[in-house]
Sequence to fold (208 residues):
Amino acid sequence: MTRIELSVTGQAPPERADAARNRRKILDAAARLVREQGPQAVTMNAVAHAACMGVGTVYRRFGDVGQLLFALLDDSEQRFQQSFLSGPPPLGPGAPPAERLRAFLHALADRIVEQREIMQMAEAASPSARYSSGVYATLFAHTSMLLREARPEADTAMLAHLLLAPFVPSLFEHLTVTRGVTPERIKAGIDDLLGVEHGPARTTHDGS
Fold:
């Protein structure tokens, strides 16, 4: 079977130098607010003030707080995509598809645990942005590809959506904060969902 690997998405298209500088200033200001006060402090007015620019510029560049928060996740998202698209196995190419799928879902769980708070703010600010984003398209296409290789008889498009559905920050907030569930138990549940034996987590999103 011919394997089709995807390219990294979420990278900004080429920009004019002044537009690129404004984008960087806005993202740096937003990141500083998150670091110092938490993602709940990120508003368009607060970011404009921190970046020393007009709020209209921030709105024109990012549209709303949800889009701005999703943009803040781009750098780490691109590293994550590199790890599962071209990193070492089992997360990257070279392992059997079922093994890669397990490693991918474990790594995705790690990523949401690590980035949960800012992801949840982005999800709340713009609930539909997840499904219309290039990030989700890449996660879905990668999951579908592995499922087609592992289970060619299945409705892999539907199964991919259903497998990805639990990987939302609101559920991880409920599990890890409200219920006190550990990431290890979440990964054991993923293994049960996939019908594989439990074992030590073999990889994280940085390929370690």
